[in-house]
Amino acid sequence: MSAPIGVFDSGYGGLTILKELKKQLPQYDYIYLGDNARAPYGTRSFETVYEYTLEAVNWFFDQGCSLVILACNTASAKALRNIQQLDLPNIGPDKRVLGVIRPSSEVLGNFTQTGHVGIMATAGTVQSDSYLLELAKFFPAVKVHQQACPMWVPLIENGEYDKPGADYFIQSYLDQLFSQSADIDAILLACTHYPLLAAKIQSYLPHGVKLISQGAIVAESLAQYLENHPEIVAKCSQQGQLQFYTTDNAQTFEKQASAFFGQKIEAKHTDLA
Ligand code: DGL
To answer: Is 65 known to be catalytic?
Structure first.
């Protein structure tokens, strides 16, 4: 039996990834889940993010999904490895859960001339050091400078991302990042919410510094993965359909979602039960 590809985020951010998946792989069906009732994840402990993410993964499996993308850096950083190594062998040995940190790390080093890259992310992602570890595998010579940006997700989730209030916190975190090294010439927005701030961030960057969003990178990587795994493709339904679920209020989700997804959507509520 085939089923949609599951796409998960703590809230709205994963929609910036789904938008690119739909662009590059429009033939597949997708089912999106935002755990808005318990967002943000970025400030929560390892144990809590793992527990919440595992609940979501089980929910996707209950919907019949064989492939789930954690379109959330925080969940990828804090829960993916445990889920892949400890849980999947018991709850779904023939199922796959993928994240966004590895595909981003596989290419990030290609964007820098100076060998210095910046990672802007939630406090949870930064503390996990996942990007340091992953980038060291693919680009051992590249120096990684991390900056936690705890105010950005609340600004975005509260619709302040294009208002003057956002400017202060953009400047402030960029100043802190560049104070680590003036040689940074490529910055990854390592939180799926942050593309909403991209235009403003770009306006504060020194000339020649590249700003990288993950959506297209993750979509390219998934396309490659599916090409290499026909057995997974056989389990993914392909009618170009989209479904959206939230653990919070569906009407509120619908109102906010278009800013992230670029078009109007219809959402349903789920209790994850
Ligand atoms: N969108 C999530 C990420 O990519 C973070 C948002 C949150 O803190 O819940 O890390």
So the answer is: no
Residues 107 and 93 in one domain: no
Q: Is 143's pLDDT higher than 90? A: yes
Per-residue confidence (pLDDT) for residue 22, from 0 to 100: 98
Residue 132: Cβ within 10 Å count: 15
CATH code, domain carrying 111: 3.40.50.1860
Determine how many CB atoms are found less than 10 A away from the CB of residue 119: 27
Closest approach atom of ligand 1 to CA 42: 8
Boundaries of domain holding 163: 102-213
Looking at the structure, tell me whether residues 23 and 49 fall in a common domain.
yes
Q: Check whether residue 203 and residue 223 sit in a common domain.
A: no
State the total domains in the chain.
2
User: Domain check: are 84 and 130 in the same one?
Assistant: no
| 191 flagged as catalytic | yes
Residues 48, 10 share a domain: yes
Q: Is the peptide bond before 40 cis (omega within 30 degrees of 0)?
A: yes
Q: What is the residue type of 2?
A: S
pTM of the shown model: 0.96
Active-site residue (options: 65, 72, 149, 236): 72
d(CA 119, CA 133): 13
Residue with the smallest CA separation from ligand 1 atom 2 is: 72
- What are 152-180's pLDDT values in tens digits? 999 998 889 999 989 999 999 999 999 99
Q: Is the CB of 73 under 6 A from ligand 1?
A: yes
User: Is 76 touching ligand 1 by the criterion CB < 6 Å?
Assistant: no
